[in-house]
Amino acid sequence: MTRDFSWRASICAGALTCLCVLPAAAQTAAFDSVTTHASGHRFSVGGYGEAVMSRNFYSDNVYRYRNPSQYKNDPSHGRFDIPHAVVYLSYDFGKGWTMSSEIEFEHGGSGGSVEKEWEEGGEWEAETEKGGEVELEQFWIQKTFAPWANVRMGHIVVPVGLTNAHHEPLNFFTVYRPEGENTILPCTWHDTGISFWGRSGDFRYELQFLAGLDAFLFDRDTWIHNGATSPFEFKVANKYGFAARVDNYTLPGLRVGLSGYYGKTFHNSFPHDMEADGQVNKSVKGTLAIGAIDFSYDRYNWIVRGNADYGYLGDAARISDLKANSAGGSSPYKKAPVGKNAVAVGIEAGYNVFSQIAKLRADNQKFYVFGRYEYYNSYIPGANQNHFDYTAKKRMAAGINYYPVPQIAIKAEYSKRFLKAGYNNEPSVSIGIAYQGFFL
Q1: Which residues are 210's β-sheet partners?
Q2: Which residue from 257, 27, 230, 255 is spatially nearest to 160, judged by alpha carbons?
Q3: Mean pLDDT over all residues of the chain?
Q4: 295-307: string of b/e by CB count within 10 Å (b at 16+)?
Q5: Which of 324, 319, 372, 382 is nearest to 348 (CA)?
Q6: Separation between Cα atoms, residue 89 and residue 91, nearest integer Å
Q7: In the chain, is it the N or the C terminus that has fewer CB atoms within a 10 Å radius of its CB?
Q8: Which residues on adjacent β-strands are paired with residue 219?
Q9: Contacts by residues 25-29 (CB-CB < 8 Å, ≥ 24 positions apart)
Q10: How far is CA 434 from CA 90, 190, 421, in A?
């Protein structure tokens, strides 16, 4: 298999039980990471995971944005969470053929049980024991013809935006994934399709043909975040989408990326004719266009990362009206309106304090002090759409990342969301631990 070492983790030689090094400063690409193989071995196992504790000093009432003054003095609330626990499995068949997969347990996975309810006449009932999700985030087969020509087929990461392209926990300073992109875009965005990608000189490029998103799963609070999911046993693909990404590595320590998505999202629901008024809505397309630029800079003991994402949804007002009239009851679709536009802008910077202490530097320990700022809005209305000012948020965070070994990060931060006048700001404290590595 062709290996792109400037994109991937450096590979440890030696025993089968070696944990391959992923430096704290590395910007490992999510779409490449699962293909990494230990030197001399065709089968690889790896993954990443996070465990988090948070204390939020604001109300968690579902109506806190509808009547802000009523919930201004509500008590704080705490949470423990396992945002992601991921297992990579990859195999090199030879002759340029490889298979890779990524199984993800979000928030501890999900669970259910069957119980005999004596209080209800001895009936058997199925009950949900815990929340969370289990997802097959990647599963594809790839043929490598040359470093500049690879074809990947199956369920793949859609690398639109900084977080989707680099979503492993050692690729951001905050305890949770950066909030702006994680709110307005599917994250991690993964879908079924075909990808052509390669590396030539200082450039890496990728073009994808994918199953389309479903406009009936868009909403006010998360824009298109849920649009790539499917409540069914299959992915509806009446419409299709295209994603593209280009990264440049010309300047030492600097990576700059451009990415985007284009596709139709309306009439991509199940059943195909569920939209109200039938032929009246034949011309409604729900055209979705997203553009993003991001960068990462890793040099002189500094890591700086930034992103800017902007999205447009055609026919947003008409789709919002149809959603309100078509969804309901046990329907998996949402009644909430969706905005014409959404935006997310963020930047973070951290300095490795241990770089100035010779003993700790020689021991490869790192201690980053960081700050982050971001602005995002999941609902920018078009003409004839209602306004909901609480969706525009600024967030500031400051904290630390300590790396006792290159594959493990201990994180802590204080953050605060700033909302428009009339709403309550939302401060919180979070502590987490994360790992990222390959075994074999």
Answers
A1: 193, 241
A2: 257
A3: 87
A4: bbbbeebebbbbb
A5: 372
A6: 7
A7: N
A8: 223
A9: 25/298, 25/303, 25/352, 25/366, 26/170, 26/171, 27/166, 27/171, 27/255, 27/296, 27/298, 27/305, 28/166, 28/168, 28/170, 28/171, 28/436, 29/159, 29/165, 29/166, 29/204
A10: 22, 22, 36
CB 353 within 8 A of CB 366: no
Q: Is 222 exposed, middle or buried (0-12, 13-18, 19+ CB in 10 A)?
A: buried
- Over residues 385-398, the mean pLDDT reads 96
Distance CA 343, CA 185 (A): 10
Amino acid 117: pLDDT: 53
Separation CA 75–CA 58 (nearest Å) = 7
Contacts of 377 (CB under 8 A, 6+ apart): 342, 343, 391, 392, 393
Where is pLDDT greater, at 274 or 296?
296
Measuring CA to CA, which residue among 255, 254, 239 is closest to residue 287? 239
Q: Does residue 404 have a cis peptide bond before it, meaning omega lies within 30 degrees of 0? A: no
Alpha carbon distance 225, 231 (integer Å): 14
Let me know: does 207 contact 151? Beta carbons within 8 Å.
no
Contact at 8 Å (CB) between 31 and 159?
yes
φ and ψ at 57, to 5 degrees? Answer: -95, 55
Residue 132, both tokens: 């969370």
175: DSSP letter = S
Express each pLDDT in 355-370 by its tens digit.
Answer: 999 999 999 999 999 9
| Residue corresponding to tokens 């009932």 | 125
Amino acid at the residue 342: A
CB–CB of 387/406 below 8 Å?
no
Distance (Å, whole) CA 410 – CA 431: 8
